[in-house]
Amino acid sequence: MIEFEIIFVVFGIGACIVGAIQVTIAYRSSIRDVEPDPERVRRFVERGMELRRQALEKSRATDRPSDDVTEPKSADLPTQQADTD
User: What residue ranges are annotated as transmembrane (predicted)?
Assistant: First the structure.
């Protein structure tokens, strides 16, 4: 290898090492042992139950037929025509 390639490889390896160190530091500083806030947990659970209830009511409303829909009357049904040969 020529000198330029050696310098390029050394700087590349150095940059990777520095990047790995920075990522490790950022990862360690972002990890926290924080207890969940009981008030936020309670609101989250209540909201989840409310959304589930709304979804259940919506699915039940679409399952049952609407009052506006009526059964077809005999005048609405097609009739058979007799052959007139």
Answer: 6-27
